[in-house]
Amino acid sequence: MSIHRGLFLLAFFRGGRYNENIVYNSFPIPRRLPGGMRHVPGVLMKMDDSIEAQRREIVRKVKQQKKQAQKKRKKRAALHFFLSFFGTLFGIFCIGLFVMYGPFPYVRNMWVTTAMGTGQHQWLATMLFDQKTINAILASNQVVEPSNNTNPNTIKVSGKVKDNATALPTEYDQENIVDGVGFIKIRSNGGLGHIYKGWVVKVYDPSRVYMALSYKFGSSGERISHMVQRTGAYVGINAGGFEDPGGEGNGGTPNALLISNFKIEHPLQSNTSIHSIIGLDSANRLTLQKLTAGQATQSTGLKGLKTAVEWSPFLIMDGQLSSMTAYSGGAPQPRTAIGQTKTGVLIFLIIDGRRPGVSDGATFKDLQQLMVKYGAYEAATLDGGSSSTLVYNDGTDAKVVNNPSSADGERYLPNAFLVTQK
Predict the structure, then answer these.
(1) Which of 73, 76, 345, 351 could anchor a disulfide with 362, C-beta 3.0 to 4.6 Å?
(2) 78 by DSSP, 3-state: which?
């Protein structure tokens, strides 16, 4: 019995160390023989109940040890995650405090001007700074526009151009004139600290531009691609803003003045003392006016405007550049702008944004410089952000050409600038 037991224990404790795999695998016991004997290759031994009980006890203890070790590993992992996570948060908090309240104004100014320039995220500034500090930052980073309203008589509309292509450009900085409209694909050179991509649209005959309203204007908005398809237009670009309470607006109601086909579709808002009016007059000349509500109702105000929206800031007025700092308007964002040359060519800028590494967006200064580059004599911003959209109708389908920043694609808007077919 002692020899058999020794062989059995040797098989179970191979190398002086117990191994559970050996218990089940390395000591094969395929069948039980009569009289309590078991067959093992080369060995015939009889196992008594005490050995079997020892084996079971060893297996039980090993399993128990494994469970305890696993619990300890989980506790250590949870503790490590907790310390790493909250340590990182604390570090970010400390860095944020240093940046926001330390000796470097760049990030602080950009943070405040960017947050306060949005409709839904102003709390990002108000949770860190009091109103007095916010007002001081905004005051020192305002866009200072020329004092006089523009004189449309200085613009002489020509409207003549020859096509040089039949499709939109695929290369950057190449103007393809298709059906009387120039399309230029643009991108920044990367030396600004941010990058952007977008489009320049040049409408050589401004009489082709008009203000379209959504299909259910006043109750719900419409995507510009739908507007273009529904009306048979050639090009569509977003125009003014809309009521968006809590970020849940449906784009059906403008948030400021809107004129379409010489008719006031939405009135001036009484909570604004000075109104920034961007309009096209009956001669299709771009006019930029700063008016009080009283001035707007006079014969020299809104009357005679074929199309108009209310937005700001103005970038160029009668060839004079608005003064601005690097922080004016905040960080780079998706942007849309309108301008006109002295020969009457209407210029639209549509800049993609909020796509890190691809297109961060543009600042107001970027828009101004682009308008100067393409010969604008008058220029102003339009609604931007997720609304910035360019649609092109190739004769088969109305397609979005740029990359709107919203995860849902095009926004539903109350109005848009449309360009008629040639």
Answers:
(1) 351
(2) helix
